[in-house]
Amino acid sequence: MSDLFSPFIKTEKQNELYKLAEKLALRVKERAKETDEQAAFSKENLRDLKETDYVTLTLPKKYGGKEISIYELLLVQEKLAEGDGSAALSMGWHLGVVKELAEDDLWDESVFDRFAKEVSEEKKIVNRIASEPATGSPSRGGIPETRAVRDGDNYIINGHKNFATMAGVLDYYIVTAYVEDQEEIGSFLIPAITPGVNVKHTWDTLGMRGTASDDLLLEDVRVHQDQLVEMKQQSKKPKGWLLHIPACYLGIAIAARNEAIEFAKSYQPNSLNTPISEVPHIQQKIGEMDFELLRARQFMYAVAEKWDQFPEKQMELGPELSAVKVAATNAASKVVDLAMRIVGGRGLSKHFNFERYYRDVRAGLHNPPMEDAVIQMLARKAIDAK
Ligand SMILES: Cc1cc2nc3c(=O)[nH]c(=O)nc-3n(C[C@H](O)[C@H](O)[C@H](O)COP(=O)(O)OP(=O)(O)OC[C@H]3O[C@@H](n4cnc5c(N)ncnc54)[C@H](O)[C@@H]3O)c2cc1C
């Protein structure tokens, strides 16, 4: 067990969850280079995540899940990301959405019941598909160009989504659209096999390539009105489950940190009588990495604990949740940068993992919430406070 990790495991259940994530992290790590090269979501990873029941961790116990808390979600997701950030971010969407749906009563009970049983018995996976080329990040509040037009008991949906993580392997998409007859944004639960739904392989990015966040095209997709599962105004609560994002990027940073220290302890150039780990500027960088990680992780786990332990305070936690994301993703970028500096020019080589970590952490900037919006929100709150 990593010395940085141990303080955060507090119960036997958490220890068991951690061991599961540790086992899976080793497996996904073996495939990380390949999925990065292919910009594809690994089918082998998905098989492992299903066979070990990782995909049902956030389901309520009554459906056979482990009903894990947000704190526990971060423990496992951070560990999984040590193996492969892409696998972790992708699973984080699925696990987080399932948790949100189970706890927030966003859907009609019978629809959620049917869906939860499919997750439990058939290990089906889901993601929210909200981003669009013309609307940008949904966190900005733009109205989707994807349109749902009423036709009797059905809706006909047309639109173009991008950044659809795991699009090619998902069983369900939760797609946002402007619902014309309601004059409001709604979300439709759409099975991947629905006619008119197509994945276009566009994902060719610098980082997080293994998330296979391709485009989703919806062409005259006919769905029953019952598949309109959410309307926008229903969900005002801050989203604690989005903490899976900082956990993921910190996991990538921990992997870079561990491998850099391992390298520093084993590399002894012939200009030195000791490994480079004994050189002051290397120690300075190692210290700075751990300082960044300690600070960001303490902050993240403290906010998660607050979320879990004080449900009555969840409505007020938006600013803290958002601040954790900004603090953690910036810390992760800094840690990976320091790890690269420790390793030197070798870090640029595809024979090491560092260059992938370096590319992957960069994507954290573009997951919600966006930094400028968070800083602006904190400023507004401070100025408006009495
Ligand atoms: C690895 C990865 C996985 C993802 N997975 C998913 C997923 O599964 N589902 C999903 O729906 N999305 C997903 N996303 C998409 C993500 O949530 C964002 O929608 C996407 O990254 C685009 O955000 P953006 O800020 O670059 O785009 P835009 O919103 O288009 O912003 C572009 C630029 O304009 C600025 N800007 C735009 N609007 C405003 C505004 N109103 N005020 C001030 N500045 C503004 C931004 O700051 C930025 O500089 C994923 C993204 C990544 C990187």
UniProtKB/TrEMBL annotation:
Under Gene3D superfamilies, the record lists: Acyl-CoA dehydrogenase/oxidase, N-terminal domain, Butyryl-CoA Dehydrogenase, subunit A, domain 2, Butyryl-CoA Dehydrogenase, subunit A, domain 3
Location of the Acyl-CoA dehydrogenase/oxidase N-terminal domain: 11-98
Chain ranges of the Acyl-CoA dehydrogenase/oxidase C-terminal domain: 246-363
Tell me one GO molecular function of this protein.
acyl-CoA dehydrogenase activity
Keyword list (alphabetical) reads: FAD, Flavoprotein, Oxidoreductase
Q: Which Pfam families match?
A: Acyl-CoA_dh_1, Acyl-CoA_dh_M, Acyl-CoA_dh_N
What's the protein name?
A: Acyl-CoA dehydrogenase
Question: Would I find Oxidoreductase among this entry's keywords?
Answer: yes
Among CDD domains, the record links this protein to: ACAD
Q: Membrane-spanning residues where?
A: none
Ranked from the top, the taxonomy reads: Bacteria, Bacillati, Bacillota, Bacilli, Bacillales
Cofactor(s) essential for the protein: FAD
Report domain Acyl-CoA oxidase/dehydrogenase middle positions.
130-221
Domain of life of the organism encoding this protein: Bacteria
Family membership noted in the UniProt record: Belongs to the acyl-CoA dehydrogenase family.
